[in-house]
Design goal:
This protein has 278 residues and is an alpha/beta fold. It is built from 10 helices and 13 strands. The chain is elongated, with a radius of gyration of 21 Å. Methylates the class 1 translation termination release factors RF1/PrfA and RF2/PrfB on the glutamine residue of the universally conserved GGQ motif.
Length: 278
């Protein structure tokens, strides 16, 4: 018989893909979901042989590198839980920072907002719930991702209009936007070799990668579409690859945007670019 604390340490040591503190957090998350146990329950005694098969099966998936968010089918974002699947990116802290920036800078009522590449819908749903009477749209090329976004919007009681569209081939069906936001694919194909297996094997490559020879592919296209779709003085917000901040900034200046700024994330890495339509 072992207690909760020793089980966490034992299982964390088996998660060879992760640094120990992260491994312990993952095990604790799994135990809380299956058993209702948290770190405060350190002295609870457990028999490994009595643990439910569903917990043991999920731990085996974790050992193979599958992200815990996909194992559990949900991920936290801005204080809420969002359904995720293999067809969506897992919402990340950096994207929370992007959403927080938009909320902070735009206190007005009734803004019209479009998120391109919406995935789980975490950006437009959060903006609808946190802003005042916003009219919000989420667009994606993946019908499977849009189905997840729609479920999340229903569960969280957010009115988000979902649009199925390939922005590389089609024009935007809406205009007169106050805000256009996107966290588009931005990792060059050559970056695959540096990526953790739990991202590469389990998250949609469609939402991650761009050609090595054209890393600004989506930024350019979205910024061009934004010139038509945004109102005068309408705002464009991007999440970016940390290596391309200056490139994205110059691109927006070249296309006629004003007040273009690079904004670092909490770790000091270039992570967001914003600009205004003239």
């Amino acid at each position: 018989m072992i207690n909760y604390n020793s089980l966490v340490k034992k299982w964390a040591a088996e998660l060879e893909l992760y640094e120990l503190p992260e491994a312990q957090n993952l095990v604790e998350w799994l135990l809380e979901q299956h058993l209702g146990l948290r770190r405060v329950d350190m002295m609870n005694f457990l028999e490994e042989k009595d643990l439910p098969k569903s917990l043991l099966d999920d731990f085996e998936r974790l050992k193979k590198g599958e992200p815990i968010q996909q194992i559990l089918g949900k991920a936290p974002f801005y204080g809420r839980e969002f359904q995720v699947s293999r067809d969506t990116l897992i919402p990340r802290n950096e994207t929370e920072e992007l959403v927080h920036l938009i909320i902070k800078e735009n206190p007005q009522s009734g803004l019209k907002i479009l998120d391109i590449g919406t995935g789980t819908g975490c950006i437009p749903i959060t903006l609808f719930l946190e802003m005042n009477e916003a009219e919000v749209y989420g667009l994606d090329v993946s019908e499977s991702a849009l189905a997840i976004a729609h479920k999340n919007a229903e569960e969280l009681k957010a009115k988000v209009h979902c649009i199925h569209l390939d922005i590389l081939e089609e024009e935007l069906p809406i205009g007169d936007l106050d805000i256009l936001v996107s966290n588009p694919p931005y990792i060059p194909e050559k970056g695959k070799e540096k990526m953790h297996r739990n991202v590469l094997d389990f998250e949609p490559q469609l939402a991650l990668f761009v050609p090595d020879e054209n890393p600004l592919l989506f930024y350019r296209r979205i910024a061009i579409l934004g010139k038509k779709a945004l109102k005068p003085k309408g705002k464009l917000y991007f999440e970016i690859h940390e290596d391309y901040g200056k490139d994205v900034q110059n691109l927006l200046f070249d296309l006629g945007y004003s007040e273009v700024e690079i904004i670092p994330d909490l770790n000091g890495k270039d992570r967001m670019v914003k600009g205004k339509n003239l």
